[in-house]
Amino acid sequence: MAEAKSDIKQSDEWQKAVAYEITDEDIERQRKLLGFDQAAKTREYITTATEDNIRNFAHGMGDDKPLYTDPNYAKKTRWGSVIAPGMMAGIINKPMKGDPIPDEIKALKKSLFRGIHVFVSGSQWDFYRPIYPGDTIYSFNGDETCEVKQSEFAGRSVITNRRDVKINQRGEVVAVYRILRVLTERKTAAKKGKYSAIEPASYSDEEMQAIEDVYAAERVQGAEKRWFESVEKGDSVGLQAKGPLTVTDVICFHAGGYGFVPYAPTANRLAHKNRQRIPAFYVKNEHGIPDVAQRLHWDPVWAQAIGNPMAYDYGVMRENYLWQYLSDWAGDDAVITHIHDEIRKFNYMGDVQRVTGEVLAKRQEGGQNLVDVAVKFTNQRDEETVRATATIALPSKDRPQPLYPQVPEELAQKAVQMLARHRELGGD
Q: Is residue 1 included in any domain, yes or no?
């Protein structure tokens, strides 16, 4: 048998995998696609919410709130049932039928940014309805913006903003998810090696105990209402810990249903078929075995080969940790209506995040009692890795059950039309 390669960078496979470049043609094609919405035909790992997969998703991010995990508890709440964490909408999708994509659009999309690394740099969420067990989620999406920037990590990069409109089986808009994606060249990132000097974190028993103490002191508001009248500008939203990050954390997040679309990491015969479908997604490891490029989230050798000091999390993981932090503070009766987050730094294996927040303002708008909060994640190197703002509708003495905001009429109409067309074409 062949010997393992001590340096994956010396292999032909690595040279091929990092040879792909961002071209002016790719950028021009991407810009021509702006504003084109299409029905999402991908089948996510989860297509319909159930009590089980809602619980598993919550547990995958370390959230044990009974509103998500205990049907007996949840049926006594205002919701009458378990509901899903709001950001779970991002990983549920049943294929939606739609009119054929025009040939010119197909041509623009074909092999666009082939072999270019994509990572999530932030998102914006607007929430309009809860997800209940039995709800099937469909979506339509399209890119809204495209700009070229110089990245501190990988030289020239492309920043795109994609809008995903998530709707349920009744044609009701559940959420609008705008994803800020950064596309970078693996070769450039590897050559720059901007973060290569970062050392893996290690902790003494005393330091680990300090982290455990933060976990032990975390408070969940739960069934106890957080009254609008009791909140003031400048109030703390609390302190939480996330990490230290391990491969186990990444596995748990995958087990909740994330990360299987569009590249479909699979095993055995399915992996064989996937290698024929998207060969550029598979790069031989140091043992000569083709494996998914996605493994940079758990394989330190591959992560280092493309310019990182070690494996790191998915940005979406910290976005969901943000949801947990906000919902822990807000309580079961509150409604998180809007979140905007920026993923400012990588979260490497071994990193621990200190999550803090404060109330920026409180206001009454459209009959709702709203608070605006700011949140940041800070790692053990004292780097701010996430910056976020959110708006939460809290219960008040005169309005003890806050409502979700109304869906903009034009968007509501489009959602109904998209689902109606899906049904006309034989979709269920």
A: no
Token pair 């072999």 in the structure block, residue: 115
Contact 13, 307 (CB under 8 A): no
For residue 342, give the nearest of 169, 159, 205, 199 by alpha carbon: 159
300 domain residue, yes or no? yes
Question: Which CA distances in Å does 398 have to 127, 333, 367?
Answer: 23, 14, 10
CB 83 within 8 A of CB 57: no
**82 in any annotated domain:** yes
Beta strands in 64-133 (DSSP E): 117-127
pLDDT tens digit sequence for 260-305: 988 899 999 999 999 999 998 899 998 999 999 999 999 999 998 8
287 inside domain:
yes
Whole-prediction pTM: 0.91
Domain enclosing residue 62, as ranges: 8-424
Q: How far apart are CA 383 and CA 245, in angstroms?
A: 15
For residue range 174-221, list pLDDT tens digits in order. 999 999 988 887 666 555 566 778 999 999 999 999 999 999 999 999
Q: Where are the alpha helices (DSSP H) in 266-408?
A: 268-277, 300-305, 315-330
Domain containing residue 129: CATH number: 3.10.129.10
Please report the pLDDT score of residue 409 as a whole number.
98
* Domain count along the chain: 1
What single-letter DSSP state applies at residue 111?
T
